[in-house]
Amino acid sequence: MNVKKIVIFLFLSLSFFSCEDDGKNNSITQPVAITFNKVENDDLFEKITSDKSRLVFNNKIIHDLSTRSNLFDFDFFYNGAGVGIADINNDGLKDVFFCGNQVPNKLYINQGNLTFKDVSDSSGINKNKNWSNGVTFADVNNDGWLDIYVSQGGPYSRELRKNILLINQKNNTFKEKATLYGLDDDSISTQTAFFDYDKDGDLDCIVMNESDFYGYDPLTFYKINQNKDNLSKSASHFYENKNGKFINITEKVGLLNPSFGLGLCIADINNDTWLDIYIANDYYIPDAMYISNKDGTFTNTIKEATKQVSFYGMGVDIGDINNDNLEDIFVLDMASQDHVRSKTLMASMNVPKFNLLKKLGYQTQYMFNSLQLNMGNDTYHNVGQFSGLSKTDWSWAGLIFDVDYDQHEDIYVTNGYRRYALDNDIKMEIQQTKRNYQGNVPLKVKEGIYNRLPSEKISNILFKNKGNISFENKTASAGLNILSYSNGAAYADLDNDGDLDLVVNNMDSESFLFKNSTVEKKRGNFLKIIPKGNLSESFVKVLISYDKKQKIKESRRVRGYLSSVDNALYFGLGNAKKIDTIKVFWPSGKYEEIYNIDSNTTLTVVEKNTNRTKPYKLEKEKTLFKKSKNIISFKHSENTFNDFKKEILLPYKQSSLGPFITKGDANGDGIDDLYIGGAHNQSGALYIKKNNSYVKMNSKAFKEDSEYEDMEALFVDIDSDGDNDLYVISGGSEFIENDSALKDRIYLNDGMGNFKRDASSGINQFNYSGKTVTKIDFDNDGDQDLIVGNRIVPQNYPLHVPSLIFENNNGKFTEVTNKICPELENFGIINKVISTDINNDGWQDFMVVGEWTHIGVFLNNKGTFKDISQKSNLKNEKGWWYTIVETDINKDGYKDYLIGNVGSNIKHKVSNEKTMRIYANDFDNNGSLDVVLSQEYNGIFVPSRGKECSTQQMPFISEKIPTFSEFANASLVDIYGEKIYDAYQREVNQFKSLLLINNTDGTFKKVVLPKLAQTMPILDGETIDINKDGYEDLIVVGNIYNTEVETPRLDNNYGLVLMSNKKDNYTVLGPNKTGLYIHGNAKSVALIKDKKTSLLIGLNNGIVQTFELAN
Prior knowledge:
Layout: E1 10-15, E2 27-33, E3 45-47, H1 50-53, E4 83-86, E5 95-98, E6 106-112, E7 115-118, H2 120-123, E8 132-138, E9 147-152, E10 164-168, E11 174-176, H3 178-181, E12 188-195, E13 204-210, H4 218-224, H5 228-234, E14 237-242, E15 245-248, H6 250-253, E16 261-267, E17 276-281, E18 288-292, E19 298-300, H7 302-305, E20 309-310, E21 316-319, E22 328-331, H8 339-344, H9 351-359, E23 365-366, E24 370-376, E25 379-382, H10 384-387, E26 395-401, E27 410-415, H11 424-436, H12 443-451, E28 458-459, E29 461-467, E30 470-473, E31 483-484, E32 486-492, E33 501-506, E34 512-516, E35 525-532, E36 541-546, E37 549-554, E38 569-574, E39 578-585, E40 591-598, E41 601-606, E42 625-627, E43 661-664, E44 673-676, E45 685-690, E46 693-696, H13 700-704, E47 710-716, E48 725-730, E49 745-749, E50 755-758, E51 770-776, E52 785-790, E53 804-809, E54 812-815, H14 817-820, H15 822-825, E55 829-836, E56 845-853, E57 856-860, E58 865-867, E59 879-880, E60 883-887, E61 896-900, E62 916-921, E63 930-937, E64 940-943, H16 947-953, ...
């Protein structure tokens, strides 16, 4: 690093008094004068070589096929090892401990200036060392000196797997005392954490384990663990500290459950001052979130708190990534960023396996990293896809910390796998070889296959937090772009300059030490807080206030992967120069406040010197809505139909789109009543408002038509007799093409809310799978015409059917689409159509959107329509559009429009430069339509889906393209031949939801909705002036649960309120402010204004939920 001038820093240590009389022994170290100099090298990190640091470690591993020391016989052979950083000799400098699998563990004493002394041989740390995995530190005997605990495993017998407890002898030597303390756990242990789970004043212990029963299919594994002895060998273990002896009480505390634990974090997850446990599990066992019941037991709430988790859970960390003072959870998996690797090396999921795991009661899992955004109310939403963090290859450690002190928590990810056992071609070769040799494969043959297992060094990744839940890969510019097989990683201020340095444990290569130059380069100010609790593992929470901001952190040592970090708290402050208030909350209930601290200060807080008590309590805001008693008792009951049985490559089910809630006056009393559509074999329901409640009408006509699947419905006066009739769209994909069950229905009203099916209206000749309808008087003749938006040829997605315009002639309809709007017929799969007067000329226009379509804007020219979307470049906005909500955001008298899209929290990524395409044709000549989703890779279009599922749909692929490697490197033409050119084709380039602001001249300004609104599909919305400022706000909802099994479902557990900025966009309020926590697959929303304003949420296969607007 080239520095123009060397500046010497002078630090002054002094006694500091807090605002409380009992805080006199807190201490503060602060700079007297700091001069920062420009560094010509802009890299944030500098790799310190081992010849300079004397930090030398290589986790070298050698396989032996004649024993179990190989990947074929021991699944965890290449899982690597961790690294820990702590001050083990109380000299104020952080020391480094490396775990080795086959090589000895190493302990390096920090000598200052990023140089270290190897004391491994003299320290006694390798007594009883075998295969070491993870390391942590704790003052187990409470003598003021940190002890070292090493979790062990390996392909050995139980006697050789016992964990190690190294008791600090206060002279850089240790004595191994695991058996004496009762902590010689002999499982396949990966990592351990110490914490006071019962608030009795001593440290208890969780030992995270991998199950002994690896390699079994999920059902066999489930059956094996019905035996309690086997279950104990599959579980992580919990030890209670009883007078210095640790007792296994795993079953008593509620942790006797199967585990393939790789990631461990202890945190006060639900902010009740009691410490909880998060375990990231590998394989098919879902992650576990054990919440303390405050009575010495835990309950796994993973299914209540989350909607989905990672499949192959690796490392885990917990931190606040969006500065809302709610801590989020980041779990790594092994999803490749690269198309070829994703098609050759990564495992696939099939429908039977997915359904089996659900049947076994497991949480929904997907093979991607997950970033669980804390939404408040003890609920999380996985925004891994939205944030850009979902795919980082075969990843291990994920550490959340503010790398450059810009006030945003960044993420560092370690990567690489020594040998890819999941290479699909090798797996096929192994299976064939076993068959050839009838299971008795010669050692030489085995060795040949083993040596062909793919191996690829991959760079670790630094994700820079850009705010608004988005991250950017800054690895190269930060100076971290080095290829490696990296596993455990830890951070600490190793040189005491105030910023956080990195140490990484690598396999088969030398470890990394990266010096952070944030302070030298004046990137941001900081506050460092060193906790001195009554226990070494204090888990203190510190809330700081500065510049009208607040930030909270909790001290925790074990995080990432098999590793331990510095347990001091580091706050990035940006340009802030002073912290107004520091509030310190100890889990014991002790509390103190400290005022007016300069930035770039190191503050030590001491629990025993604090007498004041005040338990931490997360203040809950008053929400706009509250969950209330349901005002209607309707449960949508989706019929069972497996869309994927015939259409394996569908992006999501087409048969589960309802219900829709329709408002209108059915009985002529001037008050809105409700119609809610039913699924196939469930009749829709009409609710009439009577005496401040809704009464369900016993309608014979609706019951007789239960075979239909209702989409949208519309109250409209069809026969011009002064009352509202009912038009109901029929749809779904469980029917065959031209099925009579696809006929739309008209029910005529007798004026009292009694409806009768009308079969003579002129619509009966059309049997299309529809979705949406709007009334429009397109010819200004005083009666209500109709526009019907239709979707697909059933079971032939994405082939669309024509959408239709019906002219009303005295209650009888004539189809006039080709006559007045021929562009509509071939528009595509339509999800929403609305009538609206775009230009305020008194003639009703209409807008239409759908899947694989642009945004259609059809201007009425005195009875005929023309699509003018190109004038606003909307012709090129091709998305998976679901809804249009008319509003007036700026109160200028011209209508603006929210256009709801699928959102950005989906695994597919699109842009104008990189579109996603869909092709449909009978590629295998078997008489049925085949679907191909494709994306661009290196300038050509390739399949989005993998070889296995593509072959299930089209068996010829396995013969034409026999290997996964060939498939991964093939273009669409290579695979599907010339038929790809004459296939049905559509594309998308936009997944973000938009606001169209009316320019008053027939054109629109496109505005992308704020980030939080892009974390969900927007399927429906309602307008409301929620803050009574005279401007229309919006409420939006939407979920898509029934995606194909390799695409994470869109299962956000909330609706959003969009507050108008009175000009050109919205401020988004999340559920912690609105109270709109929705539990189910939300499809529609309806606002009911009466004495109280209520919000109804229509759930697919669920009960309609009701929220009440607070006064």
